[in-house]
Every structure is written in C-alpha cells, then in structure tokens.
Amino acid sequence: MFKKFVLSMIAIIIMATVNVVVAGADDKIIKIDGSSTVYPITEAVAEEFQKAKRGAVKVTVGISGTGGGFKKFCRGETDISDASRPILKKEMDVCKEHGIKYVELPVAFDALTVVINPKNDWIRSMTVEELKKMWEPAAQGKVMKWSDVNPKWPNHKLSMFGPGADSGTFDYFTDAINGKEKASRGDFTASEDDNVLVQGVAHDKYAIGYFGLAYYVENKDKLKAVPIVNKGTTKAVSPSLATVMDGTYQPLARPIFIYVAEKALTKPEVKEFVTYYLSNAAKLTKQVGYVPLSKAHYDQAMKNFNGKKLGTGFGGKNEVGVRVDELLKRESHL
Question: What does the alpha-carbon distance between residue 44 and residue 50 come to, in Å, rounded to a whole number?
Fold first, then answer.
C-alpha cells in the first residue's frame, strides 16, 4: 500500500513538473533592449500594455545603450531595439549576416540636454563652439579647467560626465558638436546609465554633463539645464517641448527610434505591442518628458509598420537636423 502511495506521489510530481515546463514554454515574452534615452518611453508603454493584457504577455526592457542593443538585436536575441540614433552600416552588416530584417520607427523627439550643478553661478548659456572646445578630442589633457574654455569662468578643475561609447546619445552629441561621430575626449566619467550621470553632476558644483531631456525633467530639482547658442545665431535656447517643436533648439534636437525585427512579427503579441506603442506614444511620451511626434508622423509610422517597410531611411549613418516627415517617406535600405 505504501509503495503504491509513493509511486502515485512520484507520478503527480512528474506531471506537475511537466505542466510547469509546458506553461513556461507557452509564456508570451517580448524582449527589448538598447538605448537608455528611449528606455523611459518604452518602459512606460510596456507597463501600460502589460496592465491592458492582464499579465498574459510579459515585456522585458533592458538598457545596454544603443550600440549594445543593436549587438543583441542583430544576433536575433531581442524582438525590438530601442535606439537614440539610426542603425549604422557596421550594424546593418551584422544584421544581414544573421538574416535579421527590421522596420525602423521613429517614436518621439528628444532634446539632448547639457546640465550643470544648481550651485554653478557663472554659466548663463553656452555656445556650440564652447562645448566643442570642452569635449573635442584635442581637449584631452589640455582643457582641464573651466577657465581653459572661457577666461571669465573659474580657474577650477572641470568634472565631466557623459554617456559611454555604446550610447547613441554619445554618437549624436559628438557628431552635432564636434563634427564627427565618436570624436571625443576620453578623460571624462562615462556611463550607459543616465542616473549615474545625474548623480555625478548633482553632487559636484564644478560638474557638467549631457543626456536625454527626460532625465533632466525627472531631476530638475537637482540640476540646471544650459541654454545653447547654435552656430550662426546669437540667441540662447533652452531645451523644451516648445523649442523642439518649433525647431529653435539646434543642433541637439533629434528623433529617437524603435527597431522591430521582421521575424518577431510572426508573434501576434509583438505586432499588438508595437501597434499599442504607436497608438499611445503621444500621450506617454509627454508623461516621461519627451516631445511627441505629430499625429501625421505617427499615422505614417503605423502605415510603414503595417506595410512591413523593411530597412532604414538613413543608409547606415547618423544625420543632424533630419526632418521626420521626410524620413518616413524615404526609400529604405537593409
């Protein structure tokens, strides 16, 4: 009798284990990784989508930086890649090598924001030329004090904080300010986690850094945003929804993206998630501190998505000052 009982219990345990494995295999999971800048939007969309699905779909959102995200995406490890700059030629080649095709979708505008400590009382604005003098490769080991940038500023050591080399924000900033992507001094505190940069600047009177607008908005009680004077102008312009929309915040306004793998679209939950993303992006983008695209832009993006318009409109390189309406109608390349 006891032997029969033991055998029955073993059978029940085995069946329970099999059921758990089968249930696990049937779980609907959407895997996303990439840009720390795009993360707040995608995370907000993911939270709302999961609530709407009542736990039937799990969405994981990681932060590896734009470059790190594309490495995973082009190896087929993720369904969607968050990106704060377009996919580059070398990344396109890796995707092609692994048979990964994709749809490129702009989801919002960002205003790359230069920030200083609230106790900084000598900066009212900065010119693009001053930023270049501070951040260009030639500045390494030479421009070490604030007074090295502008003699009217303190004769005190610069503390500099910025995104790491895997960050699309780093790529865009170096292109827009220094004139060449990834051309930057290397002697600054770098991190793919924007919260590390926030804390670095917030705790040092002589610090300066840069990252996406949402992280400034979230921490504006700890930081000051620096108005920027673009080349050929005299007016200092602060980053905001209004100045991005009217085109006056240049050259640091940019579109940000998600890339969706064609293979992932065989999963109904991925298609449903992206549709939900584009349908709710305007509202959620504002909530996290970024600038939404126009309704016409989102409608065109939805059309491109539903029509499976594969590839990128950039041809494997970054562009400063690109117009989203024109981008969405460009011929795409894989």
Answer: 10
